[in-house]
Design goal:
This protein has helices at 23-26, 175-180, 340-347, 363-366, and strands at residues 56-57, 66-68, 71-86, 89-96, 105-108, 112-119, 128-130, 154-160, 165-170, 185-190, 201-210, 229-232, 243-246, 250-257, 263-267, 272-277, 280-281, 289-290, 292-295, 300-306, 311-317, 380-383, 386-390, 394-400. It contains four helices and 24 strands. The protein is globular. The chain binds copper (II) ion. The site of copper (II) ion has 6 residues, from loops.
């Protein structure tokens, strides 16, 4: 793991409800590792303690910790970061330890955790541990349960993980701005019994949205609903890691939603069971099958399936404007409109003018359009059969035979067995054969007869 180390200098007295208790402890704050690469980092296996299958964070990493007596110690640094959303576009965001989202925190049910939070932002912040059962004063709500963490200060949170499950962390201070800037991270608590809820691959990502004008770098922070970039772990298709699994694996996907709208996440090729929410594990008898799971704002869902069908299976948000990147939202629907005459007259003034969309917008998937710097195409990405015409919240579950455990490398496109791909057939007739139209009614059956009001016989039943 290419983690660079940064020495943290603890300085000055620290105050507040959840602050470091004494100077001796302040002097021994653990290092805060930092990560700048958006590449998926290998899972972090436990060193000692109960065994567990660590999660894999799409385009992310797990925060290393140190054991200090009976405490597991972590160090988060809230700070400005630069995040590549996909090759060709970077955003200037706020995050933790070099990235947005911040690193995934993993621990075990029953663990005592001590999480240091250093604020390197230009304004105050806090960290709320979403879904964790803890003392009220550790809940991270600025003003309500603790004083805010001022710029340059470090606070410490201490609590015991009462239960395993799927959780997240995010600020509870100037929330609209700080979440619109990308501040959030995943938090996974593994069961103390290694056999419980065991899977072979466990993927995690958080959904976040941004409003970045084409050609600019900083999100607009006062946007309430009209976001134009829909991300998984602050990445958009085609920049989102694939979810790679070996045939026969039991696979879990954990998703949290910190955007301002719900996302119906749809996975092709399988049905799956919802096994965990941020409230806890769903008892086996209460699980129900799905192929789309709607994830409300501020909620988390985990689903599981047995990867027994090899292939390249799309996984995406089913709101179609969430599988597009910026620029698309003001485009009018021109399907069926003949613009040839219009184009002729516009070209007298604007020689390069291109009319688009008369036959749908698929042409945008393969077209190289002039765009401002630092802007992604609205629909993009190529598969083995052509343009995929997606953006935003879209990735591929790649199930392959014979992958080694822990091999998350992209295996390339699926080699379909002969005769299993939809294909063109030779035809003689250009017009598809259609069913013959129904014979005209002779006033029987369900046919309707229009009778003028007041006309003779209008009150009689029609036989
Ligand atoms: Cu969506």
């Amino acid at each position: 793991m290419s983690v660079s180390r940064r020495n943290f200098m603890a300085a000055g007295a620290l105050i507040g409800a959840a602050v470091i208790g004494n100077r001796a402890r302040a002097a021994s704050i653990p290092e805060a590792p930092t990560m700048e690469s958006p590449a998926m980092q290998p899972p972090l296996f436990p060193k000692g303690g109960p065994d567990y299958q660590p999660v894999v964070t799409l385009n992310g990493w797990t925060l290393p910790w140190r054991q200090n007596g009976e405490w597991k110690e972590f160090h988060l640094v809230a700070e400005p970061v630069v995040r590549e959303l996909a090759p060709g576009m970077k955003a200037h965001l706020w995050g933790y330890n070099g990235q947005s989202p911040g690193p995934t925190i993993e621990c075990v049910e029953g663990d005592k955790v001590r999480i240091f939070v250093t604020n390197k932002l230009p304004e105050h912040t806090t960290v709320h541990w979403h879904g964790i059962l803890l003392p009220s004063g550790m809940d991270g709500v600025g003003g309500l349960t603790q004083p805010h963490i001022k710029p340059g200060k470090t606070f410490v949170y201490e609590f015991q993980m009462k239960k395993s499950g799927t959780f997240m962390y995010h600020p509870h201070a100037d929330e609209m701005v700080q979440m619109a800037m990308g501040m959030m991270g995943f938090l996974v608590v593994h069961p103390r019994d290694p056999a419980l809820h065991r899977v072979d691959r466990d993927f995690v990502f958080l959904m976040s949205s941004y409003d970045v004008d084409p050609g600019s770098y900083v999100p607009k922070v006062n946007t309430m609903t009209e976001f134009n970039l829909w991300t998984w772990n602050t990445r958009v298709f085609p920049g989102i890691d694939h979810l790679v699994a070996a045939k026969g694996d039991r696979v879990r996907v954990r998703i949290g939603n910190l955007t301002m709208t719900n996302h119906p996440i749809h996975m092709h090729g399988y049905d799956f069971a919802v096994t965990c929410t941020d409230g806890g594990w769903v008892p086996a008898a209460a699980r129900w099958p799905e192929v789309t799971i709607d994830i409300p704002v501020g909620a988390m869902r985990a689903f599981e399936f047995k990867a027994d069908e090899p292939g390249d299976w799309a996984i995406h948000c089913h709101k179609s404007h969430h599988t597009m990147n910026a620029m698309g939202h003001d485009v009018k629907n021109f399907i069926g409109v003949q613009k040839r005459d219009l184009v002729k007259s516009i070209r007298r003034m604007v020689p390069d003018y291109m009319a688009m969309g008369s036959r749908g917008m698929a042409e945008m998937g393969e077209m190289e359009m002039p765009m401002p710097d630092n802007t992604l195409p609205m629909m993009t990405g190529f598969g083995q059969f052509g343009p995929i015409e997606m953006g935003g919240m879209f990735s591929v579950v790649k199930v392959r035979e014979g992958l080694a455990a822990g091999d998350y490398k992209d295996p390339g496109w699926f080699k379909h067995p002969a005769g299993t791909v939809a294909h063109e057939v030779a035809t003689v007739d250009v017009e598809p054969k259609r069913a013959a139209p129904a014979p005209k009614s002779k006033g029987r059956g369900v046919a309707l007869k229009v009778v003028k009001p007041g006309a003779k016989g209008s009150h009689k039943d029609h036989h």
